[in-house]
Amino acid sequence: MSPKQDVSDERKSQILDAAMETFAKKGFHKTRMSDIAESSGLSKGSLYWYFDSKDAIILKLIDRVFEFELKDLTALLTNDRSAEERLYIYTERGGQDIIKMLKWMPLIYDFLALSFRQETIKKTIQRYYKKNLDLLVTLIQQGIDAGEFNPRNALEAAYAVGSIVEGTVMLWLYDPEQIDIQDHIKSSTNLLLKGLKSSN
């Protein structure tokens, strides 16, 4: 990668950081490109050199949020640990990521709300969701093939694994005093794994 490309990528990252902060303060609909330019320390014209619209910035932010999780899960597929251990690692890291991202949770749910109104955003989120689900199915199928888990529908089990992390976020949002994110994810994962190993 050329030094010029490095500078361009760094500047884009700075713009995305500023956009996250601005969206969090003002919301997607009230934020204008000029607001993001001001937060980035750029002129509006300079901002358009890097991103041609607010939607382009939103799509890039979605990439940023989801790509890390996919990279992490992909690495787990080739890990030497048992499938059970790797599922524990996946959900544990999911809990850690939630805690790191608590500040941005309202913004992330705004992404999801936007997907109901904007087809491009919906398709982008669906693409990441399907990739994540496919990787979870592969991991669970590895456990079935290795005899760790009893034969069952790997897709249904993958839905259940994904629901642990996503469901914990929802519970925490409505009852933060009662829900300890990491403890809840750990106990839910234990229950799920008992079910995967059960012959019933």
How would you characterize the overall build of this protein?
There is one protein chain. By secondary structure, the protein is an all-alpha fold. It has 2 domains: 1-52, Arc Repressor Mutant, subunit A (Orthogonal Bundle), CATH 1.10.10.60; 59-197, Orthogonal Bundle (Tetracycline Repressor, domain 2). Helix content is 79%, strand content 0%. It contains 9 helices and no strands. Helix 1 packs across helix 2 (33-40). The longest helix has 27 residues, at 119-145. It is elongated.
Task: Quickly list its features.
mainly alpha, Arc Repressor Mutant, subunit A, Tetracycline Repressor, domain 2, 9 helices, elongated
Number of strands: 0
Structural class: mainly alpha
CATH architecture descriptor text of the largest domain: Orthogonal Bundle
Summed up, the domain count is 2
Q: Helicity range of the residues?
A: over 70%
Indicate the CATH class of the largest domain: Mainly Alpha
CATH topology-level fold name of the largest domain: Tetracycline Repressor, domain 2
Q: Helix and strand string, N-terminal first?
A: HHHHHHHHH
Let me know the largest β-sheet: none
Q: Provide the residue-averaged pLDDT.
A: 90
How far apart, in Å, are the first and last alpha carbons? Answer: 54 Å
How much of the sequence lies in strands comes to under 5%
Unreliable residue runs: none
Query: C-alpha Rg, in Å?
Result: 20 Å
How many individual helices? 9
